[in-house]
Amino acid sequence: MSDDKIMALFKNGKRDKAFRELYKLFPRIEKLILSKGGTKADANDVFQEALIILNRNLEKSDFKLTSSFYTYLYSVSRFVWKDTQKQFSRQELHNLESEDVSILDAVLEEQKYQLAEHAFRKLGERCQQLLQRFYLKKMTFKAIAEVMQFKSEKVAKNQKYKCLQKVKDIYRTQVKTVQS
Amino acid sequence: MENYIDLINAYLNKTLSKAEVLSFENKLQTDSEFTAIYKEHIVVLSGIERVNLIEEISSAKQNYIRSKWLKYLGISIGIILISILAYNLIAKSQNIENSNPINNNTVEFVLDSTKTKTETEKEVSVKIISDTVSIEKVISKPKVNITSEKETIEVIYKKDDFEVENSTKNNIISFFKSVEKTPQSISLSNEEYFEITLKEGTKISIPKNAFVDEKTGKSVSGKIDIDIKEYYELSDILLANLSTKSDDELLETGGMLYIEASKNGSKLNLKPNKELGIVFNNSGKENMQLFEGEKVNDNINWVLRDKIEVNVIDELTGEIQQEAEPVAISLKSIPFSVEDMPVYSGCEKEGNECTFQKIRAHVSRKFNTDIIEELNITGQRRINTIIKFDEAGNITEVVTSNLEPLLRDEVNKVLMDLPQMIPAKKNKKAIASQLLFPIVLSNGFDEFLGVKPENATIVLNSRLGEVDNGYALNSPKLGWINCDRFVRSKKKKIKYKLKIKDSEGANVKMIFKSISSVLPSKRIDNQISFGEIPIDEDVILLAIKKKGDKLYLGIKDVTTKAVSELDLSFKEVTVDELKNELIKLNKTFN
């Protein structure tokens, strides 16, 4: 499938199909990671991360894909891998090309999100469901209260606020441990 | 706080009025506390989103894998169907042939020029047409079988050849095995930095937590064992059946090592980002580089470390990666910061990028690009060069690896022509330095030669050694390690092949007197071939063979020129006599 068609899938909200198409590029990325000393599991993680970053960028209005999906995913994967291996030398960072800079930026940004994801996964099941329903499914508190059997809309809202604060707390402690 | 969150949600959901949006964005710019809350909120939301995305991606992956299998399944079903059809057809056609008396209304179908078939009724004949298609398939099947049979026969032949050669070879290989050097064993703790000077003077330093189990890839802890063999003396090199060749190029060695690490008997590897520091006990030769050894049919081939990486990347992408890990190098072993690089005069204030650009401009201006066409370089080709500067900033040498002579000379000419630079400095003292400078050759119509201007071409690399106190190199790998340089000779080369009487099963090597090089030979038909070597070199031909339990040695001094046959008298020796003879040769090295 051509890049244009994959792009159209993204635009038409058929993200699952687009991802499936892009997985055809995985073997080549896997080769890259294996050649750099990674394992198959590493390759999986790296590619998943690259897809997430790609998707996030596509959702930004000011982002334009200037190369093919493959080239882009390849570069992102390379950066993700290097970053996880802490292999960047100061000189490399110093001499990045402008395109690379934006990729590296996205990789580093995504790291924060990853921490938040880990924080979120540490929440209780109910908290997780509540936040997902509100933020991702955009359900109203009324609907949430019904599905999750809260006494009232107000309780659901309160509960949501508490859950959110909890993620943030966990997230902050994680950031601290990472930085120290 | 809760109000803030509600506000942020409303903003993100775009339910605010225009005025509210304006005031919100204004607040983002002026109220830093609010901005922090907003940013954190975005991060958390993105984190929650990841959970969903990851789910979606892994289901996409499952789908992808499933569809891949379905495809295979489809193909197999197809094959099965064809087989069934073919089987039915054979059965049917036999029936038809048997049951058919000769008839006037026959219709003929020619199939594959060998088979004809007859049929009576028109309706049936229609059937045959569809059948014939299948018949062709049936016929083509035996064909496939025939070819594959041929192939197996060929393979068997090859194997026979191989075995014949091996049985005589095995003798000599078992001899080499029997005289193998005993390694120096060291025990150390994986948790601590470790440094040692070995018996023959090699210094090794091992960073802490450097090892992982080869099989599991997991870090190991506690005591680990390291076995190292050193090969500096010619006799040691010869007895280990080592040689100094990188593909078709001759290398001059500054010492070889074999390093193995283990814990409780299971093999260990170095972690990807850990390197051994090695100082070879040898000096006086410049441009020593690290080569890794691969055993190919009992001979060893040395591969330049940096080159491997470049190749791997090329293969994967089919394009030249701008990932260069190239470099400014101090001759004083420790990698130093970029501030210490040599500077193109006029770039004092502008920094390194200015120096690179000046060098690039110089190269693109002076390089004779006709060579690219002449050498038929298609697409892009990347070459690495090392420019060496002395303490005064003069260019003393240009080093390239594995280039065609024409290209090498041009690169040398152009780079040697660079003006004197402001020398590299360390602690404010001028020092000699090296610059690894990649050049990309391209036959594209507009881009000619030169390094991409934005390309970060210079990074520190510790893989080139210093000259003064032995060659200091870092190795990210265990196994066979060699510190060499390519032998660059302007001498004419000849193909050196010769016949040696009674040399069946002998291991024949060539030792160069002027350089520390040992070349292995290949036996082609009855001739011993050394490939292309420089002419008029004084060399020693050395042959060791083993017949039964007896060991024979032949040594002869010759000058390389075209010869066809050589008398080499083998004399019977004991293992100790052989060792002594080889030790006598040691003085030819260094």
Short description:
The complex is a heterodimer of chains A (180) and B (590). Chain A contains ten helices and no strands.
Number of domains of chain B: 5
Quickly count the helices of chain B.
Answer: 10
The portion of residues assigned to helices of chain B is 25-40%
For the largest beta-sheet of chain B, the strand count, sense and barrel status come to: 9 strands, antiparallel
Structural class of chain B: alpha+beta
How large a portion of the residues of chain A is in β-strands, by DSSP E?
under 5%
Helical amount of chain A? over 70%
Describe the fold and architecture.
The complex is a heterodimer of chains A (180) and B (590). Chain A is mainly α and 180 residues long. Chain A folds into two domains: 1-111, no CATH class; 122-180, no CATH class. Chain A is built from ten helices and no strands. In chain A, helix 5 (69-84) packs across helix 7 and helix 9 (141-147) crosses helix 10. Chain A starts with a helix and ends with a helix. The mean pLDDT of chain A is 86. The termini of chain B are far apart. In chain B, helix 2 packs across helix 3 (32-99) and helix 3 (32-99) packs across helix 4 (122-178). In chain B, strands 3, 6, 7, 8, 9, 10, 12, 13 and 22 form a nine-stranded antiparallel sheet that branches. In chain B, strands 16-15-19-14-20 form a five-stranded mixed sheet, covered by helices on one side. In chain B, strands 25-24-28-29-31 form a five-stranded antiparallel sheet. Chain B is of the alpha+beta class. Chain B has five domains: 2-59; 110-178, no CATH class; 184-308, no CATH class; 326-460, no CATH class; 493-588, Immunoglobulin-like, CATH 2.60.40. Residues 99-165, 307-338 and 444-469 of chain B have low confidence and may be disordered. Helix content of chain B is 36%, strand content 31%. The chains are: A mainly alpha (180), B alpha+beta (590).
